[in-house]
Specification:
Elements lengths: L1 H23 L8 H10 L3 E4 L2 E3 L3 E3 L3 E4 L2 E4 L3 E8 L14 E9 L2 E3 L1 E10 L4 E10 L3 E13 L8 E13 L5
Antiparallel strand pairs: 1-11, 2-3, 4-5, 5-8, 6-7, 9-10, 11-12
């Protein structure tokens, strides 16, 4: 009887500790953005969505600041130029045509909060197309969604793995002003 009792007590204590540890590491909307970002980057159980802004290239709201009426990237990014380098120095880009994208410098990208972009609208099965302008208004205050992993289907060995996430909560993030 005592052996069975010890065994059951160990199982109950282990289950209780497991529940406590799972609940203590759960994210919530009251957590700071530093905590949320570190947890999301360290684990595949959470993802962030709705966090892209455009500064000449797509980037996250965490990597930009607001300077007047434009977004400015916080980090410098490489600037590429397409150059002929010869077939022997093709950089193994798969084309083997002698042309390669070469880094010619670095710069901080910036882009206005409101800009005009173009959408291609086609008629007659794509035979008659035209560019239609539309205005894009980027928001300084964004509502980001934190999603939690609820199930994984398929096999990672076969490349058919599919992860299913459910919305855990949303939280507002305001892009800071540049110093």
């Amino acid at each position: 009887m005592t052996i069975l009792w010890r065994y059951l007590m160990k199982k109950i204590i282990a289950a209780t500790l497991a529940l406590i540890s799972v609940n203590s590491f759960a994210l919530s909307s009251t957590d700071s953005w530093e905590t949320i970002r570190s947890t999301v980057s360290a684990s595949d159980k959470y993802t962030l969505s709705n966090l892209t802004v455009f500064v000449g290239k797509p980037t996250t709201v965490f990597d930009v600041c607001v300077d007047g009426d434009k977004f400015v990237a916080l980090k410098e990014s490489p600037v590429y130029e397409r150059q002929y380098v010869g077939r022997g120095r093709d950089h193994n880009d798969g084309d083997n045509d002698g042309w390669a994208d070469v880094i010619v410098g670095y710069k901080k990208f910036s882009y206005p909060l409101t800009y005009t972009s173009y959408r291609e609208v086609c008629a007659n099965n794509g035979k008659r197309c035209r560019r239609v302008p539309y205005t894009v208004n980027q928001k300084i205050e964004n509502t980001l969604t934190v999603n939690k992993l609820i199930a994984t289907y398929g096999s990672s060995r076969r490349g058919t793995e599919r992860k299913v996430y459910k919305k855990a909560f949303t939280k507002s993030f305001t892009v800071p002003a540049c110093n």
